[in-house]
Design brief:
about 5% strand; 2 domains; about 450 residues; rod-shaped
């Protein structure tokens, strides 16, 4: 016969919990790993997206800074060359100071190109920024030469803000020009068509570079966003799958475990056999075992009751035996003999347990049981009982008061010989048929507590 698959195999004994749980745990473990994988993927791609956007913003800012810086240099140099003196007939140093300060900022062509390379800009963007940087360099050379020609006519004042300004020396041709010609050439350098064209080329190159940077950034951002969306869809699918499996496990456990257990609890409370064809294999096996135990319990109940009538520690009859025998004694309405009920309580048993241990306490109980059996047993030897803990009882039938007193004398002597202290009390009735056990037990208890109080008082006095 072909071997059947164990996955969710059903037979007359039901589905085993392990058969269902193992594949469920494996699947949940795989989904858990996928969830972690997708979360890591989302985090990594989100970090990449943030880094990409930061690089794009930095590249755009660097590219536009080249245009901004060159425009500032052009504006301030032109302002000075066209107007070397202000309205107060003082040297117009304000534009030159702004020009000098701008030159110290690292946003010239070579600086911007290095930053774009470091941030991974595309080659197309680098070529465009290189072209714009060449135009900016051309404009800067014209600006420096125009300022040098102007300052040759109108020397600059010696102020700290202008000391960093390094102007190129005039060549022989420019040096030979008169002052008016120098000023005309300075103006020409900043206002000729070539200069205007390079200025336009600079603006166009930077704008085109920014457009390329943004286009590349947009494509890369779209790719990363697509990956993030893919990971999000995977995460949603894995979480949904895990929730569906957990819901299925809950339903199966409810039908195969919880409900059968509730039904079994109800049957056990009503002392009824359990249903053996419901729930998981383990529940069915447990129900079968319980039903088998019920059958054995019913079979052995009589024997167990008989064996349960003796106290295991002392060998005396126990509470069950006492109740059974008393029922039999007081059930005979034709019995007119005397009955005496004795109650005993071991003194200082708790102290013995606390100070010497429970083994010493057990020995004390055994010794007390032996003394009570020896002093109060009848011919059958079944009239002495250990009711529980340190409490014993004995029922003596057919003896007069003198005989009862003799038993007590022997009992007192046995206590002294064995070094044990037992409080006791008793109550008698002349006719069993008219006696009431509860009254005898109450009266005997009162006498026993009086005896215990007397013994404790004597012990304190000694």
């Amino acid at each position: 016969m072909a071997k059947k698959s164990r996955r969710f195999k059903r037979n007359e004994n039901g589905i085993a919990i392990s058969t269902m749980m193992v594949p469920s745990i494996v699947i949940l473990g795989i989904l858990h790993a996928l969830i972690i994988f997708f979360i890591i993927g989302i985090n990594n791609n989100s970090a990449n997206l943030s880094s990409l956007m930061a690089r794009s913003a930095a590249n755009t800012a660097n590219a536009t800074s080249l245009l901004a810086g060159s425009s500032l240099l052009s504006e301030t140099s032109t302002n000075y060359v066209l107007r070397p003196f202000n309205d107060n007939n003082q040297p117009n140093t304000g534009p030159l100071i702004a020009f000098t300060t701008e030159l110290e900022v690292d946003r010239r062509g070579k600086d911007v190109l290095a930053k774009l390379k470091a941030n991974g800009a595309s080659q197309e963007a680098l070529n465009l920024i290189q072209s714009a940087a060449d135009s900016a360099d051309y404009m800067l050379n014209n600006q420096l030469n125009a300022i040098a020609l102007t300052t040759a006519v109108y020397p600059l004042p010696d102020i700290p803000q202008l000391k960093p300004l390094k102007l190129p020396p005039l060549n022989e041709e420019d040096s030979a020009l008169n002052d008016e010609q120098k000023l005309e050439k300075a103006t020409y350098l900043l206002l000729n068509d070539k200069y205007s064209q390079e200025k336009s080329n600079l603006s166009t190159g930077v704008n085109q570079c920014v457009g390329v940077l943004q286009a590349v950034s947009g494509r890369e951002t779209a790719i990363v966003n697509s990956q993030v969306n893919w990971f999000r869809m995977g995460l949603w699918s894995a979480v949904s799958g895990a929730l569906i499996i957990l819901l299925a496990i809950f339903v199966i456990l409810y039908l195969g475990l919880h409900k059968p257990l509730v039904d079994a609890t109800r049957c056990i409370g009503d002392d009824k056999p359990l249903e053996e064809n419901k729930g998981f294999h383990e529940i069915r096996a447990l129900s079968s075992a319980y039903n088998h135990i019920m059958k054995r319990r019913d079979f052995l109940d009589g024997q167990l009751r008989a064996a349960a009538e003796k106290d295991a520690l002392t060998g005396l009859g126990n509470r069950y035996s006492f109740d059974k025998i008393m029922d039999r004694v007081f059930a005979n309405s034709d019995d007119h003999r005397t009955i005496t009920y004795f109650i005993f309580d071991i003194n200082y048993l708790k102290e013995t347990n606390d100070n010497e241990g429970h083994e010493a306490g057990d020995r004390l109980i055994i010794k007390a049981g032996d003394i009570i059996r020896e002093c109060f047993r009848d011919s059958d030897g079944n009239n002495c009982f250990r009711l529980g803990g340190d409490e014993f009882a004995s029922v003596v039938i057919g003896e007069n008061e003198e005989m009862i007193q003799n038993r007590q004398k022997v009992f007192i002597e046995q206590q002294k010989e064995n070094g044990i202290s037992i409080s006791w009390g008793y109550a008698s009735a002349p006719d069993i048929s008219n006696a009431i056990l509860k009254i005898l037990m109450r009266d005997a208890d009162l006498e026993m507590y009086k005896c215990k109080a007397k013994m404790h008082r004597q012990s304190k006095e000694n």
